[in-house]
Amino acid sequence: MTITRLASIVMLMLAAAASPRGGQAERSCSKETICVETTQNGGTVTFSVENAKAFDTTVTFETEVENMTSSQPLRYTMLAPGGKTVPAFTLKQADKSLAWRYQYRFHWTIGSAEAVHDDSVVYAMPYSSGEAFTVIQGFNGTFSHIGEQAYSIDWNMPEGTEIHAARGGVVVDVKDDENRGGETPEYKDYANYIRVRHDDGTIGEYVHLQQGGARVKVGQHVNTGDLLGLSGNTGFSNRPHLHFWVYKAFDGYTRQSLPIVFKAREGSGLTLEQGQTYTAE
């Protein structure tokens, strides 16, 4: 199982109608990834979102207001593209003779809710040609493939096995600095992984990699079959294996895994099944 990076920040702002402020900005940042900036000019407050990472994120705002109107719904989900700052929404004082108030929080998660998976894609086995590995947990596996992880695949494989791109794209995140792993959920944040953004906006994630095992860098373009790294046993893991899933964001709280099909020497358009062994072409 892989980590889910979610974050929330709560801000409370109060203002009296008789004491307007001009051009005052506030920034709230989460995990060195997402920063929300609010700029107040009199009774108007504008929100923008900065994404410091290469991967797309989806941000959900929940806002409460008194004597203010909003340019967007008070529960508002938006895309924050990797490496960009984008406008979010604006609050305006409704009755200029009365005090106004707003309170907001935001949650973010990795991926784009706007992504639409290309269902014509057939994924390659994420290991070297001619090698064969057994699926130890497939879609809707009862050990850990539930909820947002439902459409995930685990292959049993020795540590140090070469992992190859199941689909081409751009590397948007790499973590390979951990050596900790264990059979209980408290180890989930210690998983090493590589994330590849596909051209339809979805993300393919390769998890439980070996410490120091990454063979690619953020920003690197990879083709199907290119070497990504080495398998391991880090994070929430009860044995050495590779966990792979493709997902998009659902909103700022959760991600949505996507059912995909594979090609192997055993056939093409395959939905992989637990207990079956598949040989890479």
From TrEMBL:
Lineage: Bacteria, Candidatus Moduliflexota, Candidatus Moduliflexia, Candidatus Moduliflexales, Candidatus Moduliflexaceae
Signal sequence range: none
Gene3D superfamilies (alphabetical): Glucose Permease (Domain IIA)
Name of this protein: Peptidase M23
Domain M23ase beta-sheet core: 151-248
Source organism superkingdom: Bacteria
PANTHER family: MUREIN HYDROLASE ACTIVATOR ENVC, PEPTIDASE-RELATED
InterPro entries given in the database record: Cell_wall_metabolism_enzyme (IPR050570), Dup_hybrid_motif (IPR011055), M23ase_b-sheet_dom (IPR016047)
GO MF term set: metalloendopeptidase activity
